[in-house]
Amino acid sequence: MKSFRCTICGELFLGSKLPSHCPFCGVKAKYILNSEEVNGAEIFMIKNISDESRKSLIVALNKETSNASFYKCASDNGEKEEIRILFNRLAKIEREHANIIGKFLDLDAVEFTDQECSHYDSKNLEQALESTKEIVKFYKKASIEAREVKISNLFKALGEVEESCYKMLSSFGSPEIKKDEHAFVPPLYFRVRGK
Hints:
Helix content: 40-55%
Structural class: alpha+beta
Radius of gyration: 17 Å
Number of strands: 4
């Protein structure tokens, strides 16, 4: 068993090989290293965050918390089990993204509020696609504008996850998509807390 650390969310996990995605925040394998190569205590440390990057982090936090709350509502109120599972997984990913951003902003805790959603899967999927498209666009712009390498990499990595989420959301309800093609949930790894 090997120990890996995600350089975006900082989580440690065990596995026999490098996973294709972080099982917690969903970033690609290129952001995951052997745990010995990463000082977990330094992942969220930046000496001076520019005002522009701080504003972008706050906007990102608001978008992620809003999306997480919406997905939770859609998971609780979905018509089909498959859609409830999809929105439940997306809610967890968005919550993880919000918590990551909160660490860069040096927040003790990130608050999530209740969000309205429809009782119809089609309407929730439509709203999810729109908000995901919006956040992908935001992250692309923010990653270019960020002055700090860590912040730029964060926005780029989260944007890539959101692009994957958009593709997954788009595949639901499409008859030409095979059942296994929209399975986004990464394989299960053992979560290990540590610094």
